[in-house]
Design a protein that fits this description.
- The protein is an alpha/beta fold and 302 residues long.
- The chain folds into two domains: 213 residues, P-loop containing nucleotide triphosphate hydrolases (Rossmann fold, 3-Layer(aba) Sandwich), CATH 3.40.50.300; 56 residues, 2-Layer Sandwich (Alpha-Beta Plaits).
- It is built from ten helices and 15 strands.
- The strands form three sheets. A six-stranded mixed β-sheet has the order 7-8-9-4-10-11, sandwiched between helices. Strands 1, 2, 3, 5 and 6 form a five-stranded antiparallel β-sheet that branches. Strands 13-14-12-15 form a four-stranded antiparallel β-sheet, sandwiched between helices.
- Helix 3 crosses helix 4 and helix 4 packs antiparallel against helix 5.
- The two termini are 15 Å apart.
- Bound molecules: adenosine-5'-triphosphate and magnesium ion.
- Adenosine-5'-triphosphate binds next to helix 1.
């Protein structure tokens, strides 16, 4: 057991009948970092999280969370982590305060501790004035912050958040990531899944899942530096013209896609473009890294 790890898995596997949702996943998440789990829909992120939280038994392999084997000691794991599911498990017909009180009771906080901690959490989540409001009457961003508040009531060492920002606006996303950063600065370790690549940039380390397998792993900077590809943008009046020019040039490329108003082309590093295209070199983003890996078939172990 690695004492500095908050999560350790070895060949963690989950099968549903003959379908393998998570396939021999081996990862280590060191204490004190924000670990981002990324991968396309159905790549196995939520299934992995359900195994890490002790909600689903692995078919094969094991996971240790805060030192506890998730299959052998699921209740210890559930009591010690904070978990926010993809659907925010809130009771819409209860007020903010009542939702917090419900979770405080689940986590075994004494009545006296509940009062102080709930006031602290409401303040931290900027929800003090929403205390008597039904959760069902909150905006998406407020509901998301209430769900985070419920998950941190018991000062968990590890927070596991499954797509916490999928249903909120950019301002709420930014506010939410500021909250996550302050929790991380206070010593909380975080594992978070996201489809937003700007959020992936905020993570200390990324695990990239594809078809249930870990296919890339490292810091955002390392993932970009290690990509065996370079990026160019094509300088044409429209993406359609750019695409046509690329086809006409006959230049071999790994991938080409419209990126906002630009046309991005990923090339093998040694590709000679010459003067066959109007192009500019560009910096790789995490979105390019995502698209590159999503088109590749390989596996790594961390
Ligand atoms: N209980 C289940 N029974 C059968 N198949 C399941 C079950 N739960 C998940 N799956 C399948 O396992 C695969 C992985 O699903 P999972 O929800 O882990 O993906 P995900 O990476 O979280 O996707 P998303 O980004 O859409 O949330 C999917 O093909 C899904 O249909
Ligand atoms: Mg999911």
């Amino acid at each position: 057991m690695n004492e500095r790890a908050v999560i350790e898995t070895n060949d963690l596997t989950c099968r549903f009948g003959s379908f393998t949702a998570v396939d021999h996943l081996t990862i280590t998440v060191p204490r004190g970092i924000i670990y981002g789990f990324i991968g396309s829909n159905g790549s196995g992120k939520s299934t992995t999280i359900r195994m890490l939280c002790g909600l689903l038994r692995p078919t094969e392999g094991w996971a240790r969370v805060l030192g506890y084997d998730t299959a052998q000691a699921p209740d210890q794991v559930k009591q010690r982590i904070g978990y926010m599911s993809q659907k925010f498990s809130l009771y819409h017909d209860l007020t903010c305060e009542e939702n917090l009180a419900f979770y405080a009771g689940l986590y075994g906080l004494t009545v006296a501790a509940q009062k102080t901690r709930m006031a602290e959490v409401l303040n931290l989540m900027l929800l003090t004035d929403k205390r008597p409001v039904l959760a069902g009457g909150l905006s998406g961003g407020q509901r998301q912050r209430l769900a985070l508040g419920c998950a941190i009531l018991h000062h968990p060492d590890l927070l596991i958040l499954d797509e916490p920002t999928s249903a909120v606006d950019p301002t709420s996303r930014r506010m939410f990531w500021n909250l996550l950063a302050s929790l991380a600065a206070g010593g909380t370790s975080l594992l978070v899944t996201t489809h937003f690549m700007d959020e992936a940039e905020h993570c200390d380390r990324i695990g990239f899942l594809k078809d249930g397998r870990l296919i890339a792993n490292g810091s955002p900077a390392a993932l970009k530096a290690d990509l065996p590809a370079r990026l160019i943008t094509l300088d044409y009046a429209s993406p359609t013209e750019a695409g046509q020019a690329l086809q006409d040039s006959g230049i071999p490329y790994l991938d080409a896609y419209v990126f906002g108003r630009q046309y991005h082309v990923l090339l093998a590093p040694e590709t000679d473009i010459g003067s066959r295209l109007c192009w500019n070199p560009a910096e790789l983003t995490m979105e390019d890294v995502f698209i590159y890996h999503d088109c590749q078939q390989k596996e790594v172990r961390s």
